[in-house]
Amino acid sequence: MALNLDTRQRAMLAEMHVRVWSPVMAPEPAPVLETAALAHEPTPVHAPVASPAPHVLVPVVPAAPTAHAAALAAAPVRHETQRPEGLDQMDWAGLQATVASCQACTLCSTRHHTVFGVGAPAPQGQVPQVDWLLVGEAPGENEDLQGQPFVGQAGQLLDNMLRACGLSRAAEAGPEGGGIYITNVLKCRPPGNRNPKPEELAQCEPYLQRQVALLKPKIIVAMGRFAVQSLLQHSVPGVDNTPLGKLRGQVHSYQGVPVVVTYHPAYVLRNLPEKAKVWADLCLAMAQLQGRG
Ligand code: URA
User: Cα angle at 45 between 39 and 46, to 5 degrees?
Assistant: First the structure.
């Protein structure tokens, strides 16, 4: 994808480091007022933004294990209550019920609701028929209260951008597909919208894995660094230290599903010029989808 970045912009992008997850229990960071993703997206580049991507197919990046994946697997995890066995065989209704009653980490004690996800209508307990899966970070305050992902301002921006692509979270998939599903890496709100902790991510990631396996989307859009790190930890060496800007513009892979990386809508709300980049990323996702027919 042509980003039309000049040398100065490229240098600035190279400086846009993302914070490393530590597998060791870290002291809790001070709470932030807005969605946590805001604080951790890269410093905005206030320069002419890239135009939408041309509809060019990009090869899927092959999978390779990373140090992060190994470290996370070895991380000491404090189980509040073990997740049930057999998650990898669970159907959609079972998965929904399991998430709704999950007590695998301490977030269960502060949440009002779990937030499983939302998307194309489907009969109760049935897997929605979708082409797109959009993955964010974690529920915020509104999402925790309503039990739905992306219902706040960031959600409005997301809905607007999806509409521009002819997509809607509420629409049924048409004869040519197009249904979408929106979820988060974490299904419970971190108090004060603090960053997810490694042990919380480790406990919650299997739910996302199973959602992907059941939904079988044709494209995944990873929004923000926690979604990106969760989805690409097994396939992109050094993903924790790689600025999001460097992961954009190529098609990655998660469980064999193409993954496009983009900025978190909450970050874009604060850095509106970045909207054009998200639009470019969505164009890349659409091109990938069309190429798969
Ligand atoms: N931010 C997210 O990452 N997810 C939500 O559901 C809401 C805000």
Answer: 115
